[in-house]
Automatic annotation (TrEMBL):
It comes from Neorhizobium galegae. It is found in: Cell membrane. One of its GO terms (biological process) is transmembrane transport. This is ABC transporter permease. Residues 71-258 form the ABC transmembrane type-1 domain.
Length: 272
């Protein structure tokens, strides 16, 4: 009787998970299929032939849109945000291991941007830059706007990591004569490296597909999300679907590469 009940619960959860996966990846599958439309195909089903025409069109000069430039800007912006997020989150995690004057106020100040609407932050940063006489751009104002989104998440993750980190490992290293830097380099850093990689991936992906905080801060050059949004109003060919397929595959490759790096570090750490 008990096994029958567990069996029903398993099937219910399996059906729920299947519906969730279908809801999550169903639209992506439609984009993937439509990106292989024939040369005379349109934006809707059924397919009018099958070809790679629209993928090749991505590398041609476009009458509307700048695929290559917007992708490079998003990738560079994501890398910049990722590096700063990892460094600042690590330093914040180390600093907050001990109580200091103003730590509580600083913590709430750091995470306050999570409760402010993204479009308001984007508008505020854009207005401030204009009032100061600076031209908003993707590598200055948009960079700062993205950090208001990624840093709170990175800091919270590192707080959770260090909250579970036992100081006994550091004490043992110091007892063996290790300096503070050696303790951090050879003990602390290898143990938290997978978490730092996760923070980096989180920061990159949040920046790479951020729209609202980029809308008023990117200046004259669009990032990829802004470019795709602009294309939806004036591009009438499946090249838009091809671009969606390429960016989705790129996102999955980044995730797979990051997971592979984490697995490699864990195996290396466990080796005698």
């Amino acid at each position: 009787m008990h096994s029958d009940k567990r069996g029903r619960e398993f099937y219910i959860l399996a059906i729920f998970f299947a519906i969730f996966v279908l809801f999550l990846y169903g639209p992506l599958s439609a984009i993937l299929i439509l990106s292989f439309q024939g040369p005379n195909g349109g934006l809707t089903f059924p397919l009018n032939g099958v070809s790679l025409r629209w993928f090749a069109n991505l590398f041609e000069t476009q009458a509307v849109g700048d695929f290559g430039g917007s992708f490079r800007r998003s990738a560079m912006l994501g890398i910049m945000v990722m590096i700063v997020t990892v460094v600042v989150s690590l330093l914040a995690g180390l600093a907050f291991r001990r109580r200091f004057i103003g730590s509580t106020a600083l913590f709430y100040l750091a995470v306050a941007s999570l409760v402010v609407p993204s479009i308001i932050i984007s508008l505020g940063i854009g207005v401030v830059f204009q009032q100061l006489g600076f031209q908003p751009s993707w590598y200055t104002s948009a960079f700062g706007a993205h950090l208001t989104w990624t840093l709170p998440f990175g800091v919270l993750i590192m707080f959770a990591v260090f909250n579970r980190f036992s100081p006994a490992y550091e004490e043992a290293a110091r007892d063996l004569g290790a300096s503070p830097w050696q303790t951090f380099r050879h003990v602390v850093l290898p143990m938290i490296a997978p978490s730092l990689i996760g923070v980096g991936l989180f920061g990159f992906t949040l920046s790479y597909d951020e729209f609202a905080r980029t809308l008023m801060t990117s200046g004259s050059f669009n990032t990829l999300p802004l470019e795709i949004y602009g294309m939806t109003t004036n591009v009438t060919t499946p090249v838009l679907y091809a671009l969606g397929t390429v960016t989705t595959v790129f996102s999955f490759l980044v995730i797979a590469g990051t997971l592979g790096l984490i697995v490699h570090l864990n195996r290396r750490r466990l080796q005698p």
